[in-house]
Description:
Layout: E1 2-5, H1 9-26, E2 31-34, H2 41-52, E3 62-65, E4 67-69, H3 80-87, E5 99-100, H4 109-123, E6 128-132, E7 153-156, H5 159-165, E8 178-181, H6 184-188, E9 192-198, H7 203-211, E10 229-234
Parallel strand pairs: 1-10, 2-3, 2-6, 3-5, 6-9, 9-10
Antiparallel strand pairs: 4-8, 7-8
Helix pairs in contact: 1-2
Fructose -6-phosphate (F6R) binds near residues 66, 132, 133, 138 and 141.
Amino acid sequence: MEFLKVNSYKELSQKAADKVVKVIQENPHAALGLATGSTPVGLYENLVQAYQHGQVDFHKVKTFNLDEYVGIHQDHPQSYHQYMQKHLFQFINLKDDHVHIPDGETGDLEEECQRYERLLAKEGPIDLQILGLGINGHIGFNEPGTAFDARTHVVNLTDSTREANAKFFDTKEEVPKQAITMGIGNIMESREIILLAFGEHKQPAIKQLMEGEVYEDFPASALLQHDRVKVIYGEKDS
Ligand code: F6R
């Protein structure tokens, strides 16, 4: 695992975008694994700019989002479907049928997990997976205690995760209680991974990762067993 410390959120976003652009330039058919949340917003802004400046072409690229809330409509402003439209998809030339996000609205969640698994098996492996980091070490919505070989599954979100995500909703009660997420097993099959974390509140988790201990109560530590992971992190803008 390689650690790269940056001095600003801008630098983190630029470094991450440079990596994504490079992967697509080298392989126009690249499969990207995408995350939502606060951290990758700047990365997506930079990708839009790179596209507008003709530095990258998404028309053969395929995307697979890590997760989606259960029980809110795809058109809900806080759904991850909407997030991706708002920050990236509406601005670039990605084909609609190359976009994959778990469907958290379906009546049969187990079948949806199986469908996502079949899709990943057929279209994968993911060439570059982008990850954010939960303050409790979660990746995707794989909360502490999740088996490292878990596949796409339905999770009950922890209080800590619901609280962290409450900033996006009017009240904490509105934050969904469940999500569908790719499992750590899926994430580990990616050819390459970048893990992004910015802010003082993320530093304890980064420090824990640097200590190098692999255990299921700290999901991100699974990544220590992958040989192509780069952690791009920063404490504050200096
Ligand atoms: C989102 C996701 C989550 C976030 C994590 C960090 O798709 O998978 O694991 O990456 O909760 O969120 P932020 O970036 O908002 O701190």
